[in-house]
Amino acid sequence: MSAPASFRWRGDPLSVPSPAPLRPAAAHAARSLRVLQLIPTLTVGGAERVVALLARHLCRSGHTVGVVSMYDSFQTWIEAELRADGVPLFFLGKRPGLDLRMVARIRRTLARFRPDVVHTHMYALQYALPALASRRYRVVHTLHNLAEREAHRPGRLLQHVAFRMGVVPVAIGAAVAESMRRVYRLSPRNTILNGIPVSEYAPPAGARDQLRASLDVPADAPTFISVGRLEPQKNTGVLIRAFASVPLRSTAAHLLLAGDGPLRGELERQARDLGVLHRVRFLGVRTDVPSLLAAADVFVLASRYEGNPLTIMEAMAAGKPVIATAVGCVPELVVEGAGVLVAPDDHGALEREMVELARDLALARARGAAAAHIAHARFDAAVMARAYEQLYAEGADDAAIASL
């Protein structure tokens, strides 16, 4: 592939790779496709990481892939990895709130890239729909959260129209598919589980001791980890409250919080007020999550709602047992033997499960081994990419969106 390129809309013409002639093939799977991924931003989040993994796998399979971020560049490691793999990036300069300029900018990007397939994520579909309706494309949209949570009411109305125009919806799990039936009166034909590069989460040699030493965590201390943005959805305050309980204090456990967000200051004050700040490590955004997972004994997620969280898949791939709230698609991931589920906001149940594993690390290791087995069998990104590749190919010759 040619050298990586990045683009930002400044009113000047965009220069993108010209379409290569498509090879004739007896089967759709053998055909090289031009695929354009549209997402609001390329900040570090679950949907953004799925887009990056999918784009990179498709490139390695011989397809031409571009990724559109409606906002400007945030200079994240996700962007860096895409550039390193030669994936063209387009930054359209969106302003916060409603920005109707995006419709024309998306239309111009589509005209220059000339995709066979357009794949939208999150609310990008709402801005892309007018541009998509003027030509015939195969359009796929992935719902990364429960349908009620993915879009506000006007957005859901637009997506309702889009799905009846021929946009192909993809659910990332059974709970998301069920939410589509509730909200859109639509049963998606396609449920494709999110994927991760499972092999990359095998515990790096020596990482446990090195990370614990660098974080001043005793080698024998029961250690919990949670990975995610510090925002209301993740409900980290309930986790800290459970961690501060008297039974957990008696185990001398430690808590690692990887991620950043608007609630960080409030959560640090909470940990200080509860007298556990010396045993809680606020780590900020990290790029060494496999090493952090290796340093921990148990993964915990206290979310109020979720789609299909990659962080749980990563923890399981790293051989960590999971304690999580039974929300969204989480019960589809954390099956019996790999961990336990509790109700959201039930800090008492969360505390009890954390205490049990802090006091019985042998049980934690046994559950972690079961989790790793499940992850290797179900969660690999290559499986996700092949499923999307097949979906793209099914309709690439027969565009789904007709002119209005």
Detailed description of the structure:
- Helix content is 42%, strand content 15%.
- It contains 17 helices and 14 strands.
- The chain is of the alpha/beta class.
- The protein folds into two domains: 204 residues, Rossmann fold (3-Layer(aba) Sandwich); 182 residues, Glycogen Phosphorylase B (Rossmann fold), CATH 3.40.50.2000.
- The N terminus and C terminus are likely disordered.
- It is elongated and about 65 Å long.
Relevant terms:
single chain; 404 residues; 2 domains; six-stranded parallel sheet; 14 strands; elongated; disordered N terminus; disordered C terminus
Class by alpha and beta content: alpha/beta
Count of runs of 4 or more consecutive helical residues: 17
Basic shape:
elongated
Helicity, in percent? 40-55%
Low-confidence stretches: 1-29, 399-404
Tell me the count of domains: 2
What would you report as the Rg, rounded to the nearest angstrom?
Answer: 22 Å
Strand fraction equals 15-25%
Instruction: Tell me the number of strands.
Output: 14
Q: What is the assigned CATH homologous superfamily of the largest domain?
A: Glycogen Phosphorylase B
- Determine the mean pLDDT: 89
Largest sheet: 8 strands, parallel
Strand order of the largest sheet: 1-4-3-2-5-6-7-8
- Which architecture name of the largest domain does CATH use? 3-Layer(aba) Sandwich
Distance between the termini: 36 Å
| CATH domain fold name of the largest domain | Rossmann fold
The CATH class label of the largest domain is Alpha Beta
